Amino acid sequence: MFTLRRWWEHKGLQIGLLSLLVVSAWVVRQTQGTLLLELYQGITSQFQIVQPGPTSEERLRDARVLELETQIVELENQNKKLKQLLSYVEKEPLSSRPIPARVVGRSADNWWQQVILNRGSQAGIQEGFVVKAEGGLVGLVENVTPNTSRVLLISNLKSKVGVNISRTGAKGVLRGDASAEGVLEFYEKVPNVKPGDVVVTSTYSQKFPSGLAVGRIKSLDLKKLPASVAKVELFPPIRSLDWVTVYPKPENQPMENPLSASQQSQK
Protein backbone atom coordinates (compact mmCIF):
# COMPACT_ATOMS: atom_id res chain seq x y z
CA MET A 1 0.00 0.00 0.00
CA PHE A 2 2.80 2.31 0.93
CA THR A 3 4.58 1.51 -2.35
CA LEU A 4 1.42 2.24 -4.39
CA ARG A 5 1.00 5.61 -2.66
CA ARG A 6 4.59 6.64 -3.40
CA TRP A 7 4.19 5.57 -7.01
CA TRP A 8 1.00 7.65 -7.35
CA GLU A 9 2.68 10.69 -5.80
CA HIS A 10 5.42 10.47 -8.40
CA LYS A 11 3.37 9.49 -11.44
CA GLY A 12 -0.09 10.90 -10.63
CA LEU A 13 0.60 14.42 -11.95
CA GLN A 14 1.98 13.05 -15.21
CA ILE A 15 -0.98 10.72 -15.65
CA GLY A 16 -3.38 13.60 -14.94
CA LEU A 17 -1.74 15.89 -17.52
CA LEU A 18 -1.70 13.08 -20.11
CA SER A 19 -5.38 12.41 -19.48
CA LEU A 20 -6.17 16.11 -19.85
CA LEU A 21 -4.38 16.23 -23.20
CA VAL A 22 -6.18 13.13 -24.44
CA VAL A 23 -9.56 14.50 -23.41
CA SER A 24 -8.80 17.93 -24.96
CA ALA A 25 -7.77 16.33 -28.24
CA TRP A 26 -10.98 14.28 -28.27
CA VAL A 27 -13.10 17.39 -27.57
CA VAL A 28 -11.39 19.37 -30.34
CA ARG A 29 -11.93 16.52 -32.79
CA GLN A 30 -15.60 16.12 -31.87
CA THR A 31 -16.38 19.85 -31.96
CA GLN A 32 -14.05 20.61 -34.92
CA GLY A 33 -12.39 23.40 -32.93
CA THR A 34 -15.62 25.23 -32.07
CA LEU A 35 -14.85 25.21 -28.37
CA LEU A 36 -11.40 26.76 -28.89
CA LEU A 37 -12.88 29.39 -31.23
CA GLU A 38 -15.44 30.32 -28.57
CA LEU A 39 -12.72 30.57 -25.95
CA TYR A 40 -10.64 32.79 -28.27
CA GLN A 41 -13.58 35.05 -29.03
CA GLY A 42 -14.38 35.27 -25.34
CA ILE A 43 -10.84 36.38 -24.53
CA THR A 44 -10.51 38.86 -27.40
CA SER A 45 -13.93 40.37 -26.70
CA GLN A 46 -12.59 41.56 -23.37
CA PHE A 47 -9.92 43.56 -25.15
CA GLN A 48 -12.48 44.94 -27.60
CA ILE A 49 -14.53 46.20 -24.69
CA VAL A 50 -11.46 47.80 -23.16
CA GLN A 51 -10.33 49.34 -26.50
CA PRO A 52 -13.44 50.14 -28.58
CA GLY A 53 -13.13 51.16 -32.27
CA PRO A 54 -14.00 54.62 -33.64
CA THR A 55 -17.65 55.61 -33.52
CA SER A 56 -19.63 56.58 -36.61
CA GLU A 57 -19.29 60.25 -35.61
CA GLU A 58 -15.51 59.91 -35.38
CA ARG A 59 -15.32 58.20 -38.77
CA LEU A 60 -17.44 60.96 -40.29
CA ARG A 61 -15.21 63.63 -38.73
CA ASP A 62 -12.07 61.92 -40.04
CA ALA A 63 -13.59 61.74 -43.54
CA ARG A 64 -14.38 65.46 -43.46
CA VAL A 65 -10.86 66.31 -42.31
CA LEU A 66 -9.40 64.22 -45.13
CA GLU A 67 -11.67 65.96 -47.66
CA LEU A 68 -10.63 69.41 -46.41
CA GLU A 69 -6.94 68.48 -46.54
CA THR A 70 -7.37 67.32 -50.14
CA GLN A 71 -9.13 70.56 -51.07
CA ILE A 72 -6.35 72.61 -49.47
CA VAL A 73 -3.67 70.78 -51.47
CA GLU A 74 -5.65 71.26 -54.69
CA LEU A 75 -6.17 74.98 -54.01
CA GLU A 76 -2.48 75.43 -53.25
CA ASN A 77 -1.55 73.77 -56.55
CA GLN A 78 -4.03 75.90 -58.49
CA ASN A 79 -2.81 79.06 -56.76
CA LYS A 80 0.78 78.23 -57.71
CA LYS A 81 -0.17 77.66 -61.35
CA LEU A 82 -2.19 80.88 -61.49
CA LYS A 83 0.67 82.93 -59.99
CA GLN A 84 3.08 81.54 -62.58
CA LEU A 85 0.60 82.31 -65.36
CA LEU A 86 -0.05 85.87 -64.16
CA SER A 87 3.67 86.49 -63.80
CA TYR A 88 4.13 85.42 -67.42
CA VAL A 89 1.19 87.57 -68.61
CA GLU A 90 2.55 90.68 -66.87
CA LYS A 91 5.80 90.39 -68.84
CA GLU A 92 3.94 90.78 -72.14
CA PRO A 93 3.49 94.26 -73.70
CA LEU A 94 0.17 95.91 -72.89
CA SER A 95 -0.81 95.98 -76.55
CA SER A 96 -0.54 92.20 -76.86
CA ARG A 97 -1.07 91.09 -73.25
CA PRO A 98 -2.89 87.73 -73.24
CA ILE A 99 -6.02 86.81 -71.31
CA PRO A 100 -5.61 83.97 -68.81
CA ALA A 101 -8.40 81.37 -68.86
CA ARG A 102 -9.09 77.95 -67.46
CA VAL A 103 -10.40 74.85 -69.21
CA VAL A 104 -13.83 74.11 -67.71
CA GLY A 105 -15.40 71.86 -70.32
CA ARG A 106 -14.24 68.80 -72.22
CA SER A 107 -16.15 65.71 -73.32
CA ALA A 108 -14.79 62.20 -73.74
CA ASP A 109 -16.17 62.08 -77.30
CA ASN A 110 -14.31 65.27 -78.28
CA TRP A 111 -11.29 65.01 -75.98
CA TRP A 112 -8.77 65.78 -78.74
CA GLN A 113 -11.10 68.06 -80.71
CA GLN A 114 -12.09 70.99 -78.50
CA VAL A 115 -12.19 72.50 -74.99
CA ILE A 116 -14.36 75.14 -73.32
CA LEU A 117 -12.73 78.07 -71.47
CA ASN A 118 -14.24 80.05 -68.59
CA ARG A 119 -13.67 83.43 -70.28
CA GLY A 120 -15.57 84.95 -73.20
CA SER A 121 -16.43 88.20 -74.93
CA GLN A 122 -16.85 90.04 -71.62
CA ALA A 123 -13.14 89.39 -71.01
CA GLY A 124 -12.27 90.64 -74.49
CA ILE A 125 -11.93 87.28 -76.26
CA GLN A 126 -13.06 87.08 -79.90
CA GLU A 127 -13.28 84.40 -82.56
CA GLY A 128 -9.91 83.78 -84.16
CA PHE A 129 -7.91 84.50 -81.02
CA VAL A 130 -4.87 82.27 -80.52
CA VAL A 131 -4.67 79.93 -77.50
CA LYS A 132 -1.38 78.86 -75.95
CA ALA A 133 -0.33 76.80 -72.94
CA GLU A 134 2.94 75.84 -71.34
CA GLY A 135 4.87 74.32 -74.22
CA GLY A 136 3.42 76.28 -77.11
CA LEU A 137 0.41 76.51 -79.43
CA VAL A 138 -2.85 74.88 -78.29
CA GLY A 139 -5.44 76.02 -80.80
CA LEU A 140 -7.78 78.69 -82.06
CA VAL A 141 -10.94 80.24 -80.56
CA GLU A 142 -13.78 79.30 -82.92
CA ASN A 143 -16.85 80.32 -80.90
CA VAL A 144 -17.46 82.87 -78.13
CA THR A 145 -20.28 83.60 -75.66
CA PRO A 146 -20.23 86.36 -73.02
CA ASN A 147 -18.63 84.03 -70.46
CA THR A 148 -17.14 81.10 -72.38
CA SER A 149 -15.02 80.31 -75.41
CA ARG A 150 -14.78 77.14 -77.49
CA VAL A 151 -11.29 76.28 -78.71
CA LEU A 152 -10.45 74.17 -81.75
CA LEU A 153 -7.36 72.21 -80.68
CA ILE A 154 -4.39 71.64 -82.96
CA SER A 155 -4.93 67.91 -82.30
CA ASN A 156 -8.35 68.15 -83.98
CA LEU A 157 -8.62 66.17 -87.21
CA LYS A 158 -9.89 69.37 -88.87
CA SER A 159 -6.96 71.47 -87.67
CA LYS A 160 -4.33 72.63 -90.19
CA VAL A 161 -1.39 74.82 -89.18
CA GLY A 162 1.35 76.21 -91.40
CA VAL A 163 4.70 75.29 -89.83
CA ASN A 164 8.40 75.10 -90.55
CA ILE A 165 11.47 73.38 -89.16
CA SER A 166 13.56 75.77 -87.04
CA ARG A 167 16.89 74.23 -88.01
CA THR A 168 16.47 74.24 -91.80
CA GLY A 169 13.36 76.27 -92.60
CA ALA A 170 11.66 73.31 -94.35
CA LYS A 171 7.94 74.06 -94.52
CA GLY A 172 4.66 72.17 -94.50
CA VAL A 173 1.21 71.81 -92.99
CA LEU A 174 0.62 70.22 -89.58
CA ARG A 175 -2.65 68.30 -89.34
CA GLY A 176 -4.31 67.05 -86.16
CA ASP A 177 -4.32 63.31 -85.50
CA ALA A 178 -6.72 63.06 -82.52
CA SER A 179 -3.79 62.27 -80.23
CA ALA A 180 -0.74 63.83 -78.60
CA GLU A 181 0.95 63.71 -82.00
CA GLY A 182 0.35 65.49 -85.31
CA VAL A 183 1.06 64.68 -88.95
CA LEU A 184 3.30 67.11 -90.86
CA GLU A 185 2.98 67.11 -94.66
CA PHE A 186 5.98 68.81 -96.29
CA TYR A 187 5.89 70.93 -99.43
CA GLU A 188 9.18 69.39 -100.59
CA LYS A 189 9.50 65.78 -101.69
CA VAL A 190 12.77 65.30 -99.77
CA PRO A 191 12.92 67.97 -97.05
CA ASN A 192 16.02 68.65 -94.97
CA VAL A 193 14.60 67.23 -91.74
CA LYS A 194 15.63 64.71 -89.10
CA PRO A 195 14.07 63.31 -85.90
CA GLY A 196 14.46 65.74 -83.04
CA ASP A 197 14.03 68.88 -85.15
CA VAL A 198 11.80 71.53 -83.56
CA VAL A 199 8.58 72.54 -85.33
CA VAL A 200 7.21 76.11 -85.10
CA THR A 201 4.48 78.10 -86.82
CA SER A 202 5.64 79.68 -90.06
CA THR A 203 5.14 83.05 -91.72
CA TYR A 204 2.99 81.23 -94.26
CA SER A 205 0.29 80.85 -91.60
CA GLN A 206 -2.36 83.57 -91.64
CA LYS A 207 -4.17 82.41 -88.50
CA PHE A 208 -1.21 82.14 -86.13
CA PRO A 209 1.84 84.31 -85.38
CA SER A 210 5.09 82.90 -86.69
CA GLY A 211 7.62 81.31 -84.36
CA LEU A 212 5.21 79.66 -81.90
CA ALA A 213 6.54 76.34 -80.64
CA VAL A 214 4.43 73.37 -81.72
CA GLY A 215 6.42 70.17 -81.27
CA ARG A 216 9.36 68.00 -82.25
CA ILE A 217 9.84 65.60 -85.18
CA LYS A 218 9.38 62.06 -83.90
CA SER A 219 9.66 60.02 -87.11
CA LEU A 220 9.90 60.50 -90.91
CA ASP A 221 8.39 58.80 -93.95
CA LEU A 222 10.27 60.13 -97.01
CA LYS A 223 8.63 57.54 -99.31
CA LYS A 224 5.11 58.79 -98.71
CA LEU A 225 3.32 60.08 -101.83
CA PRO A 226 2.65 62.69 -103.05
CA ALA A 227 4.81 64.33 -100.35
CA SER A 228 6.98 63.28 -97.44
CA VAL A 229 5.35 63.26 -94.01
CA ALA A 230 6.52 63.23 -90.40
CA LYS A 231 5.04 62.40 -87.03
CA VAL A 232 5.29 65.35 -84.66
CA GLU A 233 5.27 65.03 -80.87
CA LEU A 234 3.27 68.04 -79.68
CA PHE A 235 4.85 70.19 -76.96
CA PRO A 236 1.70 71.52 -75.21
CA PRO A 237 0.00 69.11 -72.78
CA ILE A 238 -3.10 68.66 -74.96
CA ARG A 239 -4.00 65.51 -73.02
CA SER A 240 -4.37 67.38 -69.71
CA LEU A 241 -4.95 71.07 -70.36
CA ASP A 242 -5.79 73.26 -67.36
CA TRP A 243 -4.77 76.94 -67.56
CA VAL A 244 -4.16 78.61 -70.93
CA THR A 245 -3.50 82.10 -72.29
CA VAL A 246 -5.55 83.66 -75.09
CA TYR A 247 -3.92 86.11 -77.54
CA PRO A 248 -5.45 88.55 -80.04
CA LYS A 249 -5.54 87.65 -83.72
CA PRO A 250 -2.16 88.07 -85.39
CA GLU A 251 -1.73 91.06 -87.65
CA ASN A 252 -1.17 90.37 -91.34
CA GLN A 253 2.43 89.29 -91.73
CA PRO A 254 4.54 89.31 -94.89
CA MET A 255 4.67 86.11 -96.86
CA GLU A 256 8.11 84.66 -97.54
CA ASN A 257 7.02 83.07 -100.79
CA PRO A 258 3.75 83.15 -102.72
CA LEU A 259 1.43 80.19 -102.15
CA SER A 260 -1.58 79.02 -104.05
CA ALA A 261 -4.99 79.95 -102.72
CA SER A 262 -5.69 76.31 -101.91
CA GLN A 263 -2.57 76.10 -99.73
CA GLN A 264 -3.31 79.37 -97.92
CA SER A 265 -6.88 78.34 -97.13
CA GLN A 266 -5.58 75.34 -95.15
CA LYS A 267 -3.68 77.42 -92.62
Low confidence ranges: 253-266
Cα-atom radius of gyration: 37 Å
Q: Major β-sheet, in short? A: 6 strands, antiparallel, barrel
Strand order of the largest sheet: 1-2-5-4-3-12
What percent of residues are in strands? 25-35%
Order of helices and strands: HHHEEEEEEEEEEEEH
Based on CA inertia axes, which overall geometry fits?
A: elongated
Structural class: alpha+beta
Q: How many helices in DSSP terms? A: 4
Average pLDDT taken over every residue: 77
**Helicity, in percent?**
25-40%
Tag the structure with descriptive keywords.
alpha+beta; disordered C terminus; six-stranded antiparallel beta barrel; 267 residues
What would your notes on this structure say?
It is built from 4 helices and 12 strands, in the order αααββββββββββββα. Strand 3 and strand 4 (136-144) form a beta hairpin. The chain has a 6-stranded antiparallel barrel. The protein has helices at residues 2-31, 34-50, 56-90, 261-264; strands at residues 99-105, 114-117, 130-133, 136-144, 149-153, 160-165, 171-176, 181-186, 198-201, 213-221, 229-234, 243-247. The protein starts with a helix and ends with a helix. The chain has 267 residues and is an alpha+beta fold. It is elongated, with a radius of gyration of 37 Å.
Fold topology:
Blueprint: H1 2-31, H2 34-50, H3 56-90, E1 99-105, E2 114-117, E3 130-133, E4 136-144, E5 149-153, E6 160-165, E7 171-176, E8 181-186, E9 198-201, E10 213-221, E11 229-234, E12 243-247, H4 261-264
